[in-house]
């Protein structure tokens, strides 16, 4: 099957610094691909490049066969940033219904999306009164209403309680099962095991592009946090672990 996202030799500078050092990879469709890496490794910058809002120095980013950020992709790619993308002075339900109207789906779909992200109890609250985790979920609910073919989520599970995190990951997989391609970033390695595929990023370089199972075999450990450390060491010494 054709890749949903193809990145070739992507170089990005921010300010006077090189942030991404020539990345190349492909993201298969209908799966949850995790973009894992420590804070500052370039995850957000990479996701910005995928949705076409990042100036790139060189290289190519293709999404669903089109150049990233091009007009035909507008309704086909969803993006939830780390900053909330909902209106603070509307309630959760009002936000969802607003976006539902924008995307031409009904109020029932809006209410379902709110329930799907576990915000039923907070549906009547103003967004400005929500916790950070709740705001992130409100943004996610609104992005889901567009039913995008590719959904890019920047650290959607930060600050969530463990139960909710599990529920969200289940929801990501349910979406993937319907054919949606998800790219989900996280700096928490224990989320790596929940992904179908992993891209490990460190200091703007790709350390691994594999499945969790392949990474475990390659590094000889079941612990993905330890696996990440071994891949870092492997890269430093130039010797495969
Ligand atoms: P992550 O999302 O993995 O935490 P980012 O993509 O946000 O990483 O940042 C990667 C690098 O780019 C960091 O060194 C960060 O300081 C730098 N950076 C991020 N945003 C800007 C900006 N607006 N101007 C200059 N440098 C930036
Ligand atoms: Mg980030």
Report the major sheet: 6 strands, mixed
Radius of gyration: 18 Å
Distance between the termini: 31 Å
- Average residue-wise pLDDT: 93
pLDDT < 50 runs, ≥5 residues? none
In total, the number of strands is: 10
The set of bound ligands, ions and cofactors reads:
adenosine-5'-diphosphate, magnesium ion
What count of helical segments does DSSP give? 7
SSE topology string: EEEHEEEHHHEHEEEHH
Shape by Cα distribution:
globular
Strand content: 15-25%
- The spatial strand order of the largest sheet comes to 6-7-8-3-9-10
Helix content: 25-40%
Structural class: alpha/beta
Helices and strands in order, then pairings?
Blueprint: E1 5-14, E2 17-27, E3 32-36, H1 43-51, E4 58-63, E5 66-67, E6 77-80, H2 92-103, H3 107-116, H4 132-144, E7 150-153, H5 162-177, E8 181-186, E9 197-202, E10 205-210, H6 212-219, H7 224-237
Parallel strand pairs: 3-8, 3-9, 6-7, 7-8
Antiparallel strand pairs: 1-2, 1-4, 4-5, 9-10
Helix pairs in contact: 2-3, 2-4, 3-4, 6-7
Descriptive report:
The protein is α/β, with parallel strands linked by helices and 241 residues long. The chain contains 7 helices and 10 strands. The radius of gyration is 18 Å and the shape is globular. The two termini are 31 Å apart. The model has no long low-confidence stretch (mean pLDDT 93). The structure holds adenosine-5'-diphosphate and magnesium ion. The site of adenosine-5'-diphosphate has 11 residues, from helix 1.
């Amino acid at each position: 099957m054709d890749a949903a996202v193809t990145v070739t030799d992507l170089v990005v500078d921010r300010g006077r610094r090189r942030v991404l050092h020539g990345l190349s990879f492909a993201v298969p469709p209908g799966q949850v691909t995790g973009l894992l890496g420590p804070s500052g490794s370039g995850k957000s910058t990479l996701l910005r490049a995928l949705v076409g809002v990042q100036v790139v120095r060189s290289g190519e980013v293709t999404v669903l066969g089109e150049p990233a950020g091009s007009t035909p992709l507008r309704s086909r790619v969803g993006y939830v940033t780390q900053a909330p993308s909902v209106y603070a002075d509307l309630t959760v339900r009002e936000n969802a219904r607003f976006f539902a109207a924008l995307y031409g789906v009904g109020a029932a779909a809006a209410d379902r999306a709110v329930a799907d992200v576990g915000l039923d109890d907070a549906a009547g609250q103003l967004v400005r009164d929500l916790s950070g985790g709740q705001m992130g979920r409100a943004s996610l609910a609104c992005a889901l209403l567009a039913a995008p073919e590719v959904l890019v989520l920047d650290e959607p599970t930060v600050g969530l309680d463990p139960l909710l995190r599990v529920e969200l990951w289940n929801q990501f997989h349910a979406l993937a099962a319907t054919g949606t391609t998800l790219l989900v970033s996280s700096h928490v390695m224990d989320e790596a095991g929940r992904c179908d595929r992993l891209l490990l990023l460190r200091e703007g370089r790709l350390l691994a592009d594999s499945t969790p199972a392949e990474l475990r075999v390659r590094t000889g450990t079941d612990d993905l946090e330890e696996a990440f450390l071994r891949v870092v060491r492997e890269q430093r010494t130039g010797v495969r672990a």
